[in-house]
Amino acid sequence: MKLLVIEDEAELAASITGYLTDYTCETAATFTQALEKIDMYTYDCILLDLTLPGGDGLRLLDMLKKEKRNDGIIIISARNAMEDKITGLTNGADDYIAKPFHLPELAARVYSVIRRKQFSSANVVEQHEVKIDLLSKKVFVEGNEVPLTKKELDLLLYFIGNKNKVISKGALAEHLSGDMADMLDSHAFVYAHIKNLKRKLTEAGYGNYLKNVYGTGYKWEV
Amino acid sequence: MKKLLDRNLKAFLLYALVVFLASVPAYFLIVDFIWRTELHEHNEIVAMRAKENFQRLSGDTAALNASIDAWNRIQPEAGIVPVNAMDEDSVYTVYRYTSLSGHEELDRFHGLISYFTAGGQAYKMTVETNIEESYETISAITAVTALFFLLLLAGFLLLNKKLSKQLWAPFHETVGKLEAYDLKSQSQIPLPQTDIIEFESLHAGIRKLISGNIAAYREQKEFTENASHELQTPLAIVQSKLDLFLQTEGLTEEQSGIIEAANHSLSRVSRINRNLVLLAKIENGQFASEETVEITGIVKELTGEMEDFLTEKNIRLELDAPGTCTVTGNAALVEILLTNLLMNAIRHTPDGGEMRAVISSGSVSIANSGASPLPEDKLFKRFSSAAAHTTGTGLGLAIVRQICQLYGWQVGYGFRDGMHHFTVAFTGGKEE
């Protein structure tokens, strides 16, 4: 899996590549560099910053779409106006994430974009004993269906997209309820959902892959 | 409160009244003096002529006596009587009833008593002339004065009304423009043209003040905008570094706790920053697209999403939506407005409390139980959260007010029956 991170902030680019170790990451810091890389190679997913030295990221997006390229594109931008989001998405980006974001959130989105692009026909995610049918939103463990709520399924996919990574409660809370997230101080509801998910999966015979890390986060260990 | 012209008018009228009142005795004294002088002269002339004629008859005693007799018979009040000795001339004024005038009232007479000798005999002669009564004079003068004063009063009032309308028209227009002015529009007030020096200098002053304010406002707005925008990238870097740090092998529980605490504060800063950018965008009118938005559906959807928070705090939510409520505005903004009101209510409801959302055709009201009323004047200001321990950004209600201002809606707060009520009335349209 190959990723291109187009981001002019070296530190941020380094963090992203440092986190997304499941993929082969390349970086481009300027418009010209990005153009060269896109010309020469294809990627599974491109993370595109809009404000770049040498040009607007949206122009790169236009070029990619004109050439009918199949690379997945996620816009990462500090411009978070509704208009920018709409322009980006209607111009062909697969997703849009506004800065600042949590790296697990980005990883989950990258995972989901690649999954959609690569397994568009199957729409089934498999992880050891668990099988998720994304179209019917059903989860099976060893052939038996596990009834999960929307939030539990959401959590499961988030963990699978960030396997072997520690995810903080805060990041989980923000993922689950977006902007509303931690308007409330306690993250008790995150804990409740995770407890239920864990119980349902264990009851269905799934191994204990979901680990509590120091009481501040969780990790899906496979 | 009094009108400026009315205040003037009162003084003018009082002065006029005093002058008119003072003029009454003056007129009377002058008229009476003229009367007396003229009649005294008249009496003297009559007496002198009579005396001359009588003296001419001095030699003929019989003719003289007959003439005196005739005189006395014709003019009984002004008689000629023989006296023992001559005396000085004298004048008098007397009021008495006279049968001659035919009416029963006092008449005033001015008389002259004069002496003369004819045929060796001294006579006293009285000449009298009717003079206008002083009370009649004074009442006539008073009546005329009062009439003129009333004319003056009516004239003043009419003129005042007309002048007030004309003179103050540009002023009232200016006041109207000032009341309707919103600094956020960042445009000059279209003040009316006037050729009155006072108003023009007022306008010049206002224009200067407004341009100063616009400049200051713009500067401040740009600062917030730029600062918030420039903060996004460093925040993103810090956030990513923390996430990365969390992946470090051999992290202790303590270190992990520190990262989580930092994460927590950082996400608060990020939210404040996002909301500041949002405020700046609303102020800049960057949410131009307008569509018809159905409120009840959005509220249902939002409360569904907030289920977790409601359960967590054990809050009972009652939704009362008898009619449909549709408004025209930007869907995203309407959603932000409702989210903020609902989240605000959830955040400040005590555990086990209750919430009520009432949606009617023209308004939406969200109520939650609470202990005591909140200071309404501070509620909608930036960073003025009523509770010190709040987890909010202190911008939620400021955003609500900003959105309402954008569309000309009314947002209000009230405390009734142990509940905080936040109401948005979707009246009026977008302000032009």
Automatic annotation (TrEMBL), chain A:
Family matches, as InterPro entries: CheY-like_superfamily (IPR011006), OmpR/PhoB-type_DNA-bd (IPR001867), Sig_transdc_resp-reg_C-effctor (IPR016032), Sig_transdc_resp-reg_receiver (IPR001789), WalR-like (IPR039420), WH-like_DNA-bd_sf (IPR036388)
Q: Which residues form the Response regulatory domain?
A: 2-114
Top-rank lineage group of the source organism:
Bacteria
* CDD domains noted in UniProt: trans_reg_C (cd00383)
Q: Boundaries of each OmpR/PhoB-type domain copy?
A: 122-222
Q: Name one Pfam family in it.
A: Response_reg
Query: Where 4-aspartylphosphate occurs along the chain?
Result: 49
Which residues carry the record's DNA-binding region feature? 122-222
Listed A to Z, the keywords are: DNA-binding, Phosphoprotein, Transcription, Transcription regulation, Two-component regulatory system
PANTHER family, A to Z = REGULATOR OF RPOS
Supply the name of the protein: Response regulator transcription factor
Q: Which organism is it from?
A: Chitinophaga caseinilytica
Its taxonomic path starts at:
Bacteria, Pseudomonadati, Bacteroidota, Chitinophagia, Chitinophagales
From TrEMBL, chain B:
Keywords from the named record: Kinase, Membrane, Phosphoprotein, Transferase, Transmembrane, Transmembrane helix
The Enzyme Commission number assigned here is 2.7.13.3
InterPro entries attached to this UniProt entry: HATPase_C_sf (IPR036890), HATPase_dom (IPR003594), His_kinase_dom (IPR005467), HisK_dim/P_dom (IPR003661), HisK_dim/P_sf (IPR036097), TCS_sensor_his_kinase (IPR050428)
Describe the location of the Histidine kinase domain by residue ranges. 226-412
Q: Which CDD domains match?
A: HisKA
Q: Which GO terms describe its molecular function?
A: kinase activity
Q: What are the transmembrane regions? A: 12-35, 138-159
- Would you tell me the protein name for this molecule? histidine kinase
- The scientific name of the source species is Chitinophaga caseinilytica
Task: Specify the taxonomic lineage.
Answer: Bacteria, Pseudomonadati, Bacteroidota, Chitinophagia, Chitinophagales
